[in-house]
UniProtKB/TrEMBL annotation:
Residues 1-27 form the signal peptide. Keywords: Hydrolase, Lipid degradation, Lipid metabolism, Signal. InterPro entries: AB_hydrolase_fold, TAT_signal. One of its GO terms (molecular function) is hydrolase activity. SUPFAM superfamilies: alpha/beta-Hydrolases. PANTHER family: PLATELET-ACTIVATING FACTOR ACETYLHYDROLASE. This is Hydrolase.
């Protein structure tokens, strides 16, 4: 039986181990651990293009905010990653702004990791602020990214920067009042309300399922508004670089659910990838019933399911339903040795924190599994790039399953 806290982590994210934690993670570093706040680095992208970035505020005046009565409109933040012509003289963007870093310190999904020992605002990405776009090779296909529930958009930086370096414009979306903290221009910060919403629903299972559905419905509406708003919201320097006739989407956990549900509801999404997100309103991956419409009706366009170790069609009923009901091309892969958070920046960051703070290996494995970053990150990048290359670029490229022993196609 799930404890209340475990149920919160599972239910709100619509996956067994995704996260909204209403506590600051705490642990006592062992002798020899770092004295000051730990500073972290992210792996460099693997593609041929340098990466530029710009952040934008979007306002949906046609929709009242569904999470707070104080605001009669829905307000979002996005980051756009794009192939740059030249990154010289343009600083590397931070992974998290100060208000976002403080929010992530206070509310996060790190198991047995002392988040307050890390300087989250110090991490720099490999995307350069306002770098000029490379127009010679565009326009580029567009791929939207949605993070797991409770996670900031910045926790998908490793994969998003890599896709941009390979010739995609990647739009990273924060779901306000869902993400730990969203910082808007001027420094205002809006924090997650989901722990409080779950406290209101608990222990009524029907109300918990309603909260799960609301969470996904809001995310889908956010994404569809993003697609509406993006053409007119683009700064002049990026206009003409996006091919909005070739749009894909991917996400982690509830973000993967969001990607496929948006694809079901909106034909502008031509291909979608779901990294370890169930597609039903259930508190655990292995629970049956309470299917979403994408699982119950399927898809007629290409999608990829990428699961942690143990997650495949035989163990995740909602994936099985989606697979059976779909008519379009479908691909399914299990990443052996992976945990739920392997598909986020935690894969790169947790081992660094553990080394600096003297955390036990069990803590690393609990968060990101047994697969090492040196293996997991290249395989994840290859899975996404080969999928979108084939489905959006029309390139005939082989996926990583034939050469990477860590990747097991569904059914094998």
């Amino acid at each position: 039986m799930l404890t209340r806290r475990t149920a919160l982590l599972s239910a709100v994210a619509a996956t067994a181990l995704s996260a909204v934690s209403a506590r600051t993670a705490s642990a006592t570093p062992r002798a020899g651990s770092a004295a000051g706040p730990v500073r972290l680095t992210l792996p460099a992208p693997g593609g041929p293009h340098p990466v530029g970035t710009v952040s934008l505020r979007l306002v949906d005046t046609a929709r009242a905010d569904p999470w707070t009565t104080a605001q009669p409109y829905r307000e979002l933040m996005i980051s756009i990653r794009y192939p740059a012509r030249d990154a010289g003289g343009h600083p590397r963007a931070p992974q998290m702004l100060p208000g976002e870093a403080a929010g992530f310190t206070a509310v996060n999904n790190l198991a047995d990791v002392p988040a307050d020992k890390v300087d989250w605002a110090a991490t720099r990405t490999h995307a350069h602020e306002d770098a000029p776009a490379d127009r010679d090779h565009g326009p580029y296909p567009v791929v939207c990214y949605s993070p797991g529930t409770g996670d900031p958009r910045s926790l998908g930086t490793t994969l998003c920067d890599d896709l941009a370096s390979r010739g995609y414009v990647v739009v990273m979306l924060d779901h306000t009042y869902d993400a730990t903290a969203v910082q808007f221009p001027g420094g205002r910060v809006e924090h997650t309300v989901l722990p409080a919403e779950y406290d209101k629903a608990y222990p009524d299972k029907k109300r918990i399922r309603a909260l799960l559905k609301k969470t996904i419905d809001v995310r889908v509406a956010d994404t569809r508004f993003l697609l509406d708003a993006l053409p007119r919201a683009l700064p002049r320097a990026l206009r003409g670089t996006l091919d909005l006739d070739r749009v894909g989407m991917f996400g982690h956990s509830a973000g993967g659910f969001t990607a496929l549900q948006t694809m079901h509801d909106d034909r502008r999404i031509a291909a979608g990838a779901n990294m370890d997100g169930v597609v039903a309103y259930v508190p655990d991956d292995g629970d049956s019933g309470h299917l979403s419409t994408v699982a119950a009706e399927g898809l007629d366009r290409p999608f990829l399911l990428l699961g942690k170790d143990g997650n495949d069609l035989s163990t995740v009923p909602s994936w099985n339903a989606l697979w059976r009901h779909s008519r379009g091309p479908r691909e399914g892969l299990t990443l052996c040795g992976a945990e739920h958070a392997t598909f986020t920046d935690e894969e790169a960051l947790i081992p660094q924190i553990a080394r600096r703070l003297g955390l036990p290996r069990a803590t690393v494995v609990k968060n990101i599994g047994t697969i090492t970053p040196a293996r997991a990150i290249p395989v994840e990048r290859a899975c996404l790039a080969s999928f979108f290359d084939r489905r959006l670029h029309g390139r005939e490229v082989a996926g990583p399953s034939a050469t990477a022993p860590e990747v097991r196609p569904f059914g094998r």
